[in-house]
């Protein structure tokens, strides 16, 4: 098994509270992995550590030829890691001072150094893919939650990241907008984009994921293909959780 | 009570008007310099840059804690006695430096507050796409903070224009200095200072109209 992304011994503490207690995870190229588990169990923290939004205390993250060690991560390492990951936030976190199109081009022009024309063409292509071809000039404040989250996903898509991270992408949405966002993520998943998604949408996780990871108490308790994990979970904690979420 | 010598006041209008450009020159140059300095000071404070942060805190405390007039005298009369490079500094330059430092201290605190008011998610989103600290400040955080801080900064600019009158104490003949000289010749102090007061008032009112326009257009852009 060849890992495209390899996480080894990841530990994150907030004060005396150990939120991640030694996470090991390997993602193969094109693998789509969903993380499930109770609230406050470190799922989002794991994603945030992979993008260095939270700084892990111990462990290693390798993405392709970039390896970052928590103990001696340089600023350049962190930027290299971030440039290989696209992050989709629960609360969209679109740049409030930029239009939908500019949200998408920002990473291309400022970070990648693309010309404005090239970035614009790419952004228009993405706007079409996310079904917002006519909203390129809209500011986030003028868009619905579903539209904002689709732009948030488009912004992450634009980076052509090795790994896309989705942190509960539909949890902040009104129910009426959840479907359109899940549809978009499903299409990205169909394109064999390597992705790690934290979600409470069990049915959705089952549909799109190659593998389900169940986390509790800062550890990976159990993982496996959806039919195995949802159908024949081995661990009592997994079964208890699945019973609770129905 | 004697009647106002309005004919004399009308005579003074073109005289004082001739000094408006100098007043505006000092205020605009000092404002631009103060904005740049204040932004830098605010960033040092927000990022808690080691050592520099402490120095900036003392700088801000000093320039907010002492009167502008005292600061101007320090720059114009005091420092040249010990700093050879400053001997022969002219009043306009000293006034611009003093106004810049004084107002930058106040403006830094406003900008700092505005930066802290920008939602954390904006920092994280910018970091997540791989922006450097400088890029995210320049492209995402400062533009949003500027909108919040704009009304307050505009107030400081208005205050700055009025404060240029203190340059007169450094021997600069600006609007206030010109009025003083005229009054000293004619002994019509009330008329002379009334004219100069009206000049300041008109300038400030004109700017206030601009300020309200600016605020309503900024308000539209960030309407939620």
UniProtKB/TrEMBL annotation, chain A:
Alphabetical list of InterPro entries matching this protein: AAA+_ATPase (IPR003593), ABC_ATPase_HisP-typ (IPR030679), ABC_transporter-like_ATP-bd (IPR003439), ABC_transporter-like_CS (IPR017871), MetN_ABC_transporter-like (IPR050086), P-loop_NTPase (IPR027417)
Provide the taxonomic classification.
Answer: Bacteria, Pseudomonadati, Pseudomonadota, Alphaproteobacteria, Rhodobacterales
Where does the record place the ABC transporter domain?
Answer: 5-242
Please name the source species: Paracoccus hibiscisoli
- What molecular function terms (GO) are annotated for this protein? ABC-type amino acid transporter activity; ATP binding; ATP hydrolysis activity
What is the protein name for this chain?
A: Amino acid ABC transporter ATP-binding protein
* Matches recorded under Pfam families: ABC_tran
Task: Name the family.
Answer: Belongs to the ABC transporter superfamily.
Instruction: Identify the keywords attached in UniProt to this record, alphabetized.
Output: ATP-binding, Nucleotide-binding, Transport
**SUPFAM superfamilies, alphabetically?**
P-loop containing nucleoside triphosphate hydrolases (SSF52540)
From TrEMBL, chain B:
Q: Which UniProt keywords apply?
A: Amino-acid transport, Cell membrane, Membrane, Transmembrane, Transmembrane helix, Transport
UniProt GO cellular component terms: ATP-binding cassette (ABC) transporter complex
**Where is each ABC transmembrane type-1 domain found?**
20-208
Q: Where are the bilayer-spanning segments? A: 20-44, 56-79, 85-106, 183-203
The superkingdom of the source organism is: Bacteria
Q: Where in the cell is it found?
A: Cell inner membrane; Cell membrane
**Topological type in the membrane:** Multi-pass membrane protein
What family is reported?
Answer: Belongs to the binding-protein-dependent transport system permease family. HisMQ subfamily.
**What is the protein name stated in its UniProt record?**
Amino acid ABC transporter permease
